[in-house]
Amino acid sequence: MKPAAFDYVAPNSLEAAVEALAATNGDGKVMAGGQSLMPLLNFRMTRPSTIIDLTHIAGLSFIELRDNAVAIGAMTRHAELEFSKLVAARLPVMAAAMPHVAHLAIRNQGTIGGSLSHADPAAELPMLAVFYEATIKVQGPGGRREIPAEEFFVSALTNCLEPDEIVFEIEFPVLTSHTGWAFEEVARRFGDFALACIAVSIALRDGRIADARVAAMGVADTPLRLRQAEDALRGGQVGPGSAAEFAEVVRSCLSPADDIHVSAEYRRHLIGALAEKALLKAGARATGEQP
Amino acid sequence: MKVDIVVTVNGRKYTASVEPRLLLSDFLRDTIGLTGTHVGCEHGVCGACTIHLNGDSVRSCLTLAVRANGMDITTVEGLGTPDQLNALQHEFREKHGLQCGFCTPGMLMTGMDLLEKYPLASDDEIREGLSGNLCRCTGYQNIVAAIRAAACLRNRSAP
Questions:
Q1: Is the pLDDT of residue B159 over 70?
Q2: Which residue of B has its CA nearest to A100?
Q3: What is the CA radius of gyration of chain A?
């Protein structure tokens, strides 16, 4: 329950961090907030030769509005997102999701860049990145590149980063026309990883759904955007009947697996129930009710 | 490899040369002898090792001592003394919010941060806030009651 020995560097710039990472030839590990990496180190499930600590790099922690997107620095801590007025105003689904991310003591240390890079399929931030069509900006020895969130997550705990690339910023486009939204998650205990979770956001025009965004997690080895479910919502109305139909569409899009926690059948049932609840809540919010 | 660090713990400055793999929890207990911080699971689940780092509650078992270099730490020893308990410690005594005491340092340090950051308007909110801290004795009832009492006190003294 103690980490194996490793070397430690705490560079002052992103460029120096990339250089230090590249110098380890794939044996090094970047530490952002450390809240996923530290348990892996303590269990010795990972034994990196070197830890490259990003704590002392200035300018990687910020939340700012740029045109129609919220740009977030990779070292921004979960608690900063949770308490941000800008996030609450422009990314309401993220604001609703943040209290579900582990516990306060973890949110005080864990970062968005770390969570995305860890790519846990049952973690909230990767799912939010997919939901919002976020752009993940990374730096490597050859320079910078931008990766759409949906391409970033490859499978469970696996992203598409090269071994010497580091996430430095994430840009979340604001869903300006969407006035109704909901985030529904079920975990065994509050703060645990989700058994199933869905985010729904809608734009209404003349009482009908003009646009919809749907993403789910905990039901596959990456967070998923559910375009088929979005298509099914467009042009329809929000009501108990359409919510029940939406639940069936969501269930039909997914083929979750059995795991140690719950059966596949239960998970499929659960995600549908959450979808139904989420659509009704999103509809209520869009028409100005407090769900 | 060893790294020199300087940290402030409960207002006192400590310098040490530590291995990078040394956990902050072990630094506090073994290197500088502050054993009030308890170590339970060592993977961030039980909350017993919760301390404050630059004013925020964190798990000291999920923090490397080297990362705390230059930072300000408060442990349970920094809250109050047996003769002069702080308000939350006082409520834990009043409400009998502990039995064996193993989880108590973590409960107190978490409770202090919850009182700082949340309205704690309902027991549900207090219970959610405590969901990362395990207690195997009390059934949590009296811990919740102690934090509820401290929140009432806080609200009364708020301007």
A1: no
A2: B128
A3: 19
Which among B36, B37, B30, B92 has a CA at the least distance from the CA of B59? B37
B57 contacts on A by Cβ (under 8 Å) = 104-105, 108
pLDDT above 70: percentage of residues in chain A: 100
Domain extents for chain B? 3-78, 87-157
Cβ–Cβ under 8 Å, residues B128 and A190: yes
Q: What pTM does this model have?
A: 0.96
CA A194 to chain centre: 12
Residues B86-130 pLDDT 10s: 999 999 999 999 999 999 999 999 999 999 999 999 999 999 999
What is the distance between the alpha carbons of residues A274 and A253, in angstroms, rounded to a whole number?
A: 14
Q: CA torsion, points B74, B77, B81, B85, in degrees to nearest 10?
A: 60
Phi-psi region of A218 (alpha: psi -120 to 50; beta: other; left: phi over 0): left
**Does one domain contain both A167 and A195?**
no
> Which residues on A lie below 8 Å from B129 (Cβ)?
104
Secondary structure letter of residue B130 according to DSSP = T
Contacts for B39 with CB less than 8 Å, ≥ 6 apart: B25, B26, B29, B48, B49, B61
Nearest CA-CA distance, residue B6 and chain A, Å: 15
Q: Which of B54, B64, B80 is nearest to B25 (CA)?
A: B64
Residues 6+ apart with CB under 8 A from A16: none
The CATH fold of domain B3-78: Ubiquitin-like (UB roll) (3.10.20)
Helix (H, G, I), strand (E, B) or coil at A59: coil
Residue A1 falls inside a structural domain: no
Which residue of chain A has the CA closest to B56? A108
CATH code for the domain of A89:
3.30.465.10
Give a three-class secondary structure readout of B67-87: HHCCCEEECHHHCCCCCCCCH
| CATH architecture, domain defined by B87-157 | Orthogonal Bundle (1.10)
